Amino acid sequence: MQIQRNKSGETISYRVVIGEAGSDFTQFINPEEKDYLQRRISSGKPLTILNRPDGVDFILLLKKEEEVYHIELENARKAAFELYPHLKDHDAEKISITNDKITKAEMLAFLEGLYLTDYKFNKYFTKKEDQFKIMEADVISEEISEEDLASLVAALEGTIFARDLVNEPLSYLTATKIAEEIAEKSTEAGFSIETFNKKKIEALRMGGLLAVNKGSVDPPTFSILEWKPENAKNDKPYILVGKGVVYDTGGLSLKPTHDSMDYMKCDMAGAAAVAGTIYAIAKAKLPVHVIGLIPATDNRPDGNAYVPGDVVEMYDGSTVEVLNTDAEGRMILADALSYAKQYDPELVIELSTLTGAAHAAVGKYAIVGMGNAGKASMEALVEAGFNTFERIAEFPFWDDFSELLKSDIADQKNIGGRYAGAITAGKFLEKFTDYPYVHLDIAGPSFNKTQDNYRGKGGSGIGTRLLFEFFKQKSK
Question: What would the pLDDT profile of 272-295 be if each residue is shown by its tens digit?
Fold first, then answer.
């Protein structure tokens, strides 16, 4: 879908006109249509379709939430999702979009919802019956600039890239292949990537990543993505770390299949969000220096797989007693977090589909967040989460929780027990940091088993828009 400002003045047959309470749409309708439109609005109908000999107008009224502005923006995104079937019914592949009295932010949010609703992952269908896509959306607005649209499209393309990665099955997306996919995008967007192979990972003694990989016939990878423009406003880099478990069986602590292992191709959604974010930042040319670290492997129960009771020496030299091989994400992330120390980072943000406990706590409605980075960083992330409606529910990060990770035979164990599982996972990872750190557990909203409005079905791309917004604000 191409989003652009209408420069040509060309009349497009399908026009979407967006308004809100107080809009009368006078400039868009004929006098004889006014009474009909007002009756629709008065009866609470948000959409009126006006069929004319020269085209079709979709008059759309947004729901107002005057006291909660971020919900107002979310209403605009959802309104686009609700409009979409009507555009499809009219085969409206090329549309113009204009507005009557709505804000610039609402207009951009509407475009965001429309673009994400238009996403389809149909790569593996042999017969693509649903061919409808919006090919072009011409925006008619004095307030919205080319720069506004370029920034929006960059964030959306990054989200789509993340969705595509999550939706790919292991039969295609191995640890090696995810690095290759990111490399292709790096050439397009202009960021750099270096990928370590298994021999290099062994030389570095990344014990956590190698332990999880022991049960696989496919080698692990460790990718370093970097966007460093000459005009970067930060002296020390921001680092993003993403969990890249391309498929998780649970290892020898085998998961049940139904409603668990059957969708574990999504266990690399953190890596996808990191890749999507850096792609978007590079496309938008934001003046921030950002590095992404992606450890990648699958987790399988082969005869040589690591087992409960093993002690693993990690990249930083510390030891971990493995009590559950299904707590594998933290093992590979720990090595990446230790590796990040060499950059003396301004802030490290790690994203992972880490715990069922986080999913149980907030469902699909939020990201579980915690960390030691301080109030300002967390508040900025929370604000970005509200602006994009990729909301963060902040959990406590007290040192008391580390008590649950004490091991009898090693520096710590890789699970903390039945209680506070989301927090003990974060505290485990904190042991491998010596810098400001934020842990974002995206287990709940990363993958939708059923359609969730504009977030779609399958991979949601969660985290990409959130982090792009965070860095966009940092770059101002």
Answer: 999 999 999 999 999 999 999 999
Q: Helices 146-167 and 269-284 meet at what angle, rounded to 10? A: 160
* Whole-number pLDDT of residue 24: 86
| Cα dihedral across residues 170, 329, 161, 227: positive or negative | negative
Q: Which amino acid is at 81?
A: F
Rounded Cα gap, residues 142 and 117, in angstroms: 25
330 is catalytic: yes
CA dihedral 2, 110, 82, 166 (to 10 degrees): 60
Same domain, yes or no: 103 and 168: no
Give a yes or no: residue 147 inside a domain.
Answer: no
Distances (CA, A) of 308 to 87, 254, 385, 403, 406: 54, 11, 37, 20, 16
Report the range of poorest mean pLDDT among 25-29, 261-265, 323-327: 25-29
Q: Specify whether 195 is located in the same domain as 319.
A: yes
Give pLDDT tens digits for 425-475: 999 999 999 999 999 999 999 999 999 999 999 999 999 999 999 999 999
Residue 8 belongs to a domain with what CATH number?
A: 3.40.220.10
Into how many domains does the chain fold? 2
Mean pLDDT of 317-338: 98
Q: Confirm whether 255 is a catalytic residue.
A: yes
Q: How many Cα atoms occupy the beta-carbon half-sphere of 289 within 13 Å?
A: 14
Question: Is residue 46 a contact partner of residue 63, using CB atoms and an 8 Å limit?
Answer: yes
Distances (CA, A) of 80 to 58, 91, 112, 198: 11, 16, 8, 46
**3-state DSSP assignment of residue 471:** helix
> How many Å apart are CA 201 and CA 209, to the nearest integer?
8
| Separate counts of helices (H) and strands (E) for the chain | 13, 20
Of residues 78, 330, 391, 455, which has the active-site annotation?
330
Catalytic residue among 63, 64, 255, 364: 255
Q: Does 368 share its domain with 231?
A: yes
